[in-house]
Prior knowledge:
By secondary structure, the chain is α+β, with helices and mostly antiparallel strands. It has helices at 56-70, 108-115, 157-162, 168-191, 227-235, 246-254, 270-288, 300-316, and strands at 15-20, 24-29, 33-38, 43-44, 47-48, 79-84, 87-91, 94-105, 120-121, 124-125, 135-141, 144-145, 194-206, 209-213, 222-226, 242-244.
Amino acid sequence: MAKALTNTDLRLEGLQSVYHGKVRDVYTLKNGLLVMVVTDRISAFDVILPEGIPYKGEILNRIAAYNLDATRDIVPNWKVATPDPMVTVGLACEPLKVEVIVRGYITGSAWRAYKEGERSLCGIALPEGLKENQKFDHPILTPTTKADEGHDENISREEIIAKGIVPKEAYEKIEKIALALFNRGTELAAKRGLILVDTKYEFGLRDGEVYLIDEIHTPDSSRYFYLDTYDELFRENKPQKQLSKEFVRQWLIDNGFQGKEGQKVPEMTEAYTSSVTDRYIELFEHLTGESFEKHPTDDLEGRIRSNVSSWLNSYKK
Length: 317
Protein backbone atom coordinates (compact mmCIF):
# COMPACT_ATOMS: atom_id res chain seq x y z
CA MET A 1 0.00 0.00 0.00
CA ALA A 2 1.36 3.41 -0.96
CA LYS A 3 1.93 5.83 1.90
CA ALA A 4 0.27 9.22 2.22
CA LEU A 5 2.09 12.37 3.33
CA THR A 6 -0.16 14.09 5.87
CA ASN A 7 2.34 16.25 7.81
CA THR A 8 5.57 18.07 7.00
CA ASP A 9 8.24 19.74 9.09
CA LEU A 10 10.79 21.20 6.69
CA ARG A 11 13.72 23.00 8.27
CA LEU A 12 14.50 25.33 5.38
CA GLU A 13 17.21 27.98 5.34
CA GLY A 14 15.76 31.46 5.77
CA LEU A 15 12.47 30.18 7.15
CA GLN A 16 10.28 32.97 8.49
CA SER A 17 6.95 31.27 9.25
CA VAL A 18 4.90 28.14 8.58
CA TYR A 19 1.18 27.83 7.96
CA HIS A 20 -0.57 24.45 7.96
CA GLY A 21 -3.83 24.69 6.03
CA LYS A 22 -6.45 22.04 5.33
CA VAL A 23 -4.32 20.53 2.57
CA ARG A 24 -1.28 22.73 2.03
CA ASP A 25 1.72 23.46 4.25
CA VAL A 26 3.09 26.90 3.36
CA TYR A 27 6.63 27.87 4.32
CA THR A 28 7.36 31.61 4.04
CA LEU A 29 11.02 32.48 3.50
CA LYS A 30 12.80 35.74 4.26
CA ASN A 31 13.68 36.22 0.58
CA GLY A 32 10.01 36.79 -0.36
CA LEU A 33 9.34 33.28 -1.61
CA LEU A 34 6.73 30.77 -0.48
CA VAL A 35 7.34 27.03 -0.49
CA MET A 36 3.94 25.36 -0.76
CA VAL A 37 3.80 21.63 -0.08
CA VAL A 38 0.59 20.02 -1.30
CA THR A 39 0.11 17.17 1.16
CA ASP A 40 -2.07 14.10 0.75
CA ARG A 41 -4.55 15.40 3.33
CA ILE A 42 -8.12 15.60 2.13
CA SER A 43 -10.86 17.85 3.48
CA ALA A 44 -14.60 18.05 2.97
CA PHE A 45 -17.21 20.30 4.59
CA ASP A 46 -14.21 22.27 5.94
CA VAL A 47 -13.09 19.24 7.97
CA ILE A 48 -9.74 17.49 7.49
CA LEU A 49 -10.54 13.79 7.12
CA PRO A 50 -8.59 11.30 9.24
CA GLU A 51 -6.87 9.44 6.40
CA GLY A 52 -4.67 10.81 3.63
CA ILE A 53 -5.02 9.87 -0.03
CA PRO A 54 -1.78 8.55 -1.58
CA TYR A 55 -0.54 10.55 -4.61
CA LYS A 56 -3.29 13.17 -4.19
CA GLY A 57 -0.84 15.96 -3.32
CA GLU A 58 1.33 15.29 -6.35
CA ILE A 59 -1.71 15.18 -8.62
CA LEU A 60 -3.11 18.45 -7.32
CA ASN A 61 0.25 20.20 -7.53
CA ARG A 62 0.98 19.04 -11.07
CA ILE A 63 -2.50 19.94 -12.35
CA ALA A 64 -2.28 23.37 -10.72
CA ALA A 65 1.17 24.00 -12.21
CA TYR A 66 -0.08 22.93 -15.65
CA ASN A 67 -3.00 25.35 -15.48
CA LEU A 68 -1.00 28.22 -13.99
CA ASP A 69 1.29 28.01 -17.01
CA ALA A 70 -1.71 27.77 -19.36
CA THR A 71 -3.32 30.97 -18.02
CA ARG A 72 -0.30 33.21 -17.44
CA ASP A 73 -1.30 35.37 -20.43
CA ILE A 74 -4.56 36.29 -18.63
CA VAL A 75 -3.16 37.27 -15.25
CA PRO A 76 0.27 37.04 -13.60
CA ASN A 77 0.50 34.26 -11.03
CA TRP A 78 2.63 33.39 -8.06
CA LYS A 79 4.38 30.27 -9.46
CA VAL A 80 8.16 30.41 -9.90
CA ALA A 81 9.13 26.71 -9.99
CA THR A 82 8.08 23.16 -9.08
CA PRO A 83 11.23 21.62 -7.59
CA ASP A 84 9.31 18.52 -6.45
CA PRO A 85 6.10 16.90 -7.76
CA MET A 86 4.37 17.90 -4.49
CA VAL A 87 5.85 21.40 -4.20
CA THR A 88 5.45 24.78 -5.85
CA VAL A 89 7.77 27.64 -5.00
CA GLY A 90 6.32 31.05 -5.69
CA LEU A 91 6.14 34.74 -4.91
CA ALA A 92 4.65 35.86 -1.61
CA CYS A 93 1.55 37.99 -2.23
CA GLU A 94 -0.89 39.74 0.08
CA PRO A 95 -3.99 37.50 -0.14
CA LEU A 96 -7.35 39.11 -0.81
CA LYS A 97 -9.80 37.88 1.82
CA VAL A 98 -12.33 36.34 -0.58
CA GLU A 99 -12.54 33.28 -2.76
CA VAL A 100 -14.20 33.82 -6.13
CA ILE A 101 -16.33 30.84 -7.12
CA VAL A 102 -17.47 30.71 -10.75
CA ARG A 103 -20.41 28.43 -11.50
CA GLY A 104 -21.44 27.42 -15.00
CA TYR A 105 -24.05 24.90 -13.82
CA ILE A 106 -26.27 24.51 -10.77
CA THR A 107 -25.01 21.53 -8.81
CA GLY A 108 -23.42 20.59 -5.50
CA SER A 109 -24.05 22.97 -2.60
CA ALA A 110 -25.83 25.47 -4.88
CA TRP A 111 -28.30 22.80 -5.95
CA ARG A 112 -28.82 21.58 -2.40
CA ALA A 113 -29.72 25.13 -1.35
CA TYR A 114 -31.96 25.65 -4.40
CA LYS A 115 -33.78 22.37 -3.76
CA GLU A 116 -34.54 23.58 -0.22
CA GLY A 117 -36.16 26.74 -1.59
CA GLU A 118 -33.31 29.25 -1.84
CA ARG A 119 -33.71 31.53 -4.86
CA SER A 120 -30.81 33.89 -4.21
CA LEU A 121 -27.15 32.92 -4.20
CA CYS A 122 -24.63 35.54 -3.02
CA GLY A 123 -27.06 38.28 -4.03
CA ILE A 124 -27.78 36.74 -7.44
CA ALA A 125 -31.45 35.95 -8.14
CA LEU A 126 -32.03 32.45 -9.49
CA PRO A 127 -35.05 31.68 -11.73
CA GLU A 128 -37.73 29.15 -10.91
CA GLY A 129 -37.76 25.78 -12.59
CA LEU A 130 -34.06 24.96 -12.67
CA LYS A 131 -33.08 21.28 -12.74
CA GLU A 132 -30.07 19.73 -11.07
CA ASN A 133 -26.92 20.10 -13.20
CA GLN A 134 -28.59 22.58 -15.55
CA LYS A 135 -26.31 25.03 -17.33
CA PHE A 136 -26.76 28.70 -16.48
CA ASP A 137 -27.34 31.12 -19.36
CA HIS A 138 -24.07 32.76 -18.28
CA PRO A 139 -21.53 31.74 -15.61
CA ILE A 140 -22.25 33.38 -12.26
CA LEU A 141 -19.80 34.53 -9.57
CA THR A 142 -20.59 33.47 -6.01
CA PRO A 143 -17.82 34.70 -3.69
CA THR A 144 -17.19 33.45 -0.19
CA THR A 145 -15.26 34.85 2.73
CA LYS A 146 -11.90 33.21 3.27
CA ALA A 147 -11.88 31.92 6.82
CA ASP A 148 -8.58 31.18 8.56
CA GLU A 149 -10.48 28.63 10.63
CA GLY A 150 -13.94 27.09 10.37
CA HIS A 151 -16.37 27.54 7.51
CA ASP A 152 -16.16 29.96 4.60
CA GLU A 153 -19.39 31.93 4.23
CA ASN A 154 -21.26 33.06 1.12
CA ILE A 155 -21.18 36.80 0.58
CA SER A 156 -22.41 39.17 -2.13
CA ARG A 157 -20.20 41.48 -4.19
CA GLU A 158 -22.10 44.41 -2.67
CA GLU A 159 -21.20 43.30 0.87
CA ILE A 160 -17.56 42.75 -0.09
CA ILE A 161 -17.26 46.28 -1.43
CA ALA A 162 -19.40 47.95 1.27
CA LYS A 163 -17.43 46.31 4.09
CA GLY A 164 -14.11 47.16 2.46
CA ILE A 165 -13.03 43.51 2.38
CA VAL A 166 -11.68 44.16 -1.12
CA PRO A 167 -11.57 47.66 -2.64
CA LYS A 168 -14.17 48.22 -5.38
CA GLU A 169 -11.67 48.66 -8.21
CA ALA A 170 -9.69 45.55 -7.24
CA TYR A 171 -12.83 43.44 -6.84
CA GLU A 172 -14.24 44.46 -10.21
CA LYS A 173 -10.88 43.55 -11.75
CA ILE A 174 -10.78 40.08 -10.20
CA GLU A 175 -14.36 39.44 -11.35
CA LYS A 176 -13.29 39.99 -14.96
CA ILE A 177 -10.14 37.92 -14.49
CA ALA A 178 -12.12 35.06 -12.88
CA LEU A 179 -14.52 34.88 -15.83
CA ALA A 180 -11.63 34.93 -18.31
CA LEU A 181 -9.91 32.11 -16.38
CA PHE A 182 -13.14 30.12 -16.33
CA ASN A 183 -13.49 30.53 -20.09
CA ARG A 184 -9.92 29.32 -20.60
CA GLY A 185 -10.50 26.39 -18.25
CA THR A 186 -13.68 25.52 -20.16
CA GLU A 187 -11.75 25.49 -23.45
CA LEU A 188 -8.96 23.34 -22.05
CA ALA A 189 -11.42 20.89 -20.49
CA ALA A 190 -13.43 20.56 -23.71
CA LYS A 191 -10.29 19.51 -25.57
CA ARG A 192 -10.06 16.61 -23.11
CA GLY A 193 -13.73 15.63 -23.33
CA LEU A 194 -14.70 17.31 -20.06
CA ILE A 195 -16.94 20.16 -18.91
CA LEU A 196 -15.61 22.60 -16.31
CA VAL A 197 -18.71 22.92 -14.13
CA ASP A 198 -17.55 25.22 -11.35
CA THR A 199 -14.32 26.28 -9.71
CA LYS A 200 -12.78 28.66 -7.21
CA TYR A 201 -10.00 31.21 -7.62
CA GLU A 202 -7.90 33.04 -5.07
CA PHE A 203 -6.08 36.29 -5.70
CA GLY A 204 -3.46 38.41 -4.01
CA LEU A 205 -1.70 41.71 -4.47
CA ARG A 206 2.00 42.17 -5.15
CA ASP A 207 3.33 45.69 -5.63
CA GLY A 208 -0.26 46.80 -6.16
CA GLU A 209 -0.88 44.33 -9.01
CA VAL A 210 -3.42 41.49 -8.91
CA TYR A 211 -1.87 38.00 -8.97
CA LEU A 212 -3.54 34.60 -9.17
CA ILE A 213 -2.42 32.54 -6.17
CA ASP A 214 -2.85 29.02 -4.78
CA GLU A 215 -4.30 26.25 -6.97
CA ILE A 216 -6.32 26.43 -10.19
CA HIS A 217 -8.62 23.96 -11.98
CA THR A 218 -7.73 21.01 -9.72
CA PRO A 219 -10.24 18.37 -8.56
CA ASP A 220 -10.17 19.95 -5.09
CA SER A 221 -11.10 23.41 -6.38
CA SER A 222 -13.18 22.43 -9.41
CA ARG A 223 -15.86 20.08 -10.64
CA TYR A 224 -15.86 18.40 -14.05
CA PHE A 225 -18.57 16.50 -15.96
CA TYR A 226 -17.92 14.19 -18.90
CA LEU A 227 -18.86 15.99 -22.09
CA ASP A 228 -20.04 12.98 -24.07
CA THR A 229 -22.64 11.85 -21.51
CA TYR A 230 -23.86 15.20 -20.17
CA ASP A 231 -26.84 15.81 -22.48
CA GLU A 232 -28.29 12.30 -22.22
CA LEU A 233 -27.92 12.08 -18.45
CA PHE A 234 -29.41 15.57 -18.01
CA ARG A 235 -32.44 14.74 -20.16
CA GLU A 236 -33.04 11.55 -18.18
CA ASN A 237 -32.58 13.29 -14.80
CA LYS A 238 -29.73 10.95 -13.92
CA PRO A 239 -26.60 11.81 -11.91
CA GLN A 240 -23.78 13.14 -14.04
CA LYS A 241 -20.60 11.17 -14.52
CA GLN A 242 -18.11 13.53 -12.99
CA LEU A 243 -14.53 14.00 -11.94
CA SER A 244 -14.21 16.11 -8.81
CA LYS A 245 -14.08 15.82 -5.04
CA GLU A 246 -17.88 15.78 -4.98
CA PHE A 247 -17.87 11.98 -4.92
CA VAL A 248 -16.07 12.17 -1.54
CA ARG A 249 -18.66 14.65 -0.22
CA GLN A 250 -21.47 12.42 -1.46
CA TRP A 251 -19.90 9.36 0.20
CA LEU A 252 -19.75 11.29 3.46
CA ILE A 253 -23.38 12.45 3.11
CA ASP A 254 -24.50 8.89 2.36
CA ASN A 255 -22.73 7.81 5.55
CA GLY A 256 -24.31 10.50 7.73
CA PHE A 257 -21.60 13.16 7.78
CA GLN A 258 -21.82 16.79 6.61
CA GLY A 259 -19.44 18.43 9.07
CA LYS A 260 -22.18 19.25 11.55
CA GLU A 261 -21.74 19.13 15.31
CA GLY A 262 -22.05 15.65 16.75
CA GLN A 263 -21.51 13.87 13.43
CA LYS A 264 -18.70 11.34 13.09
CA VAL A 265 -16.55 10.83 10.01
CA PRO A 266 -17.18 7.32 8.65
CA GLU A 267 -14.32 4.82 8.60
CA MET A 268 -12.00 5.36 5.66
CA THR A 269 -10.77 1.89 4.86
CA GLU A 270 -7.63 1.11 2.86
CA ALA A 271 -9.83 -0.02 -0.02
CA TYR A 272 -11.76 3.27 0.05
CA THR A 273 -8.67 5.51 0.13
CA SER A 274 -7.20 3.48 -2.74
CA SER A 275 -10.38 4.03 -4.76
CA VAL A 276 -10.13 7.79 -4.14
CA THR A 277 -6.52 7.72 -5.40
CA ASP A 278 -7.75 6.01 -8.57
CA ARG A 279 -10.32 8.77 -9.15
CA TYR A 280 -7.69 11.47 -8.75
CA ILE A 281 -5.36 9.71 -11.18
CA GLU A 282 -8.24 9.44 -13.66
CA LEU A 283 -8.79 13.19 -13.54
CA PHE A 284 -5.06 13.91 -13.87
CA GLU A 285 -4.82 11.79 -16.99
CA HIS A 286 -7.97 13.28 -18.51
CA LEU A 287 -6.91 16.86 -17.86
CA THR A 288 -3.27 16.65 -18.89
CA GLY A 289 -3.30 13.88 -21.48
CA GLU A 290 -0.35 12.31 -19.62
CA SER A 291 -0.05 8.90 -17.99
CA PHE A 292 0.46 9.00 -14.23
CA GLU A 293 3.38 6.98 -12.90
CA LYS A 294 3.28 5.94 -9.26
CA HIS A 295 6.67 6.71 -7.73
CA PRO A 296 7.91 5.24 -4.41
CA THR A 297 6.29 6.85 -1.36
CA ASP A 298 8.53 5.48 1.42
CA ASP A 299 10.25 8.80 2.26
CA LEU A 300 8.25 11.61 0.69
CA GLU A 301 9.31 14.25 3.20
CA GLY A 302 12.98 13.39 2.75
CA ARG A 303 12.64 13.63 -1.02
CA ILE A 304 10.85 16.98 -0.74
CA ARG A 305 13.43 18.40 1.66
CA SER A 306 16.29 17.37 -0.64
CA ASN A 307 14.66 18.69 -3.83
CA VAL A 308 13.56 22.00 -2.31
CA SER A 309 16.89 22.67 -0.58
CA SER A 310 18.78 21.93 -3.80
CA TRP A 311 16.55 24.31 -5.78
CA LEU A 312 16.84 27.08 -3.18
CA ASN A 313 20.64 26.78 -3.21
CA SER A 314 20.73 27.14 -6.99
CA TYR A 315 18.23 30.04 -6.82
CA LYS A 316 20.55 31.96 -4.49
CA LYS A 317 23.39 31.61 -7.01
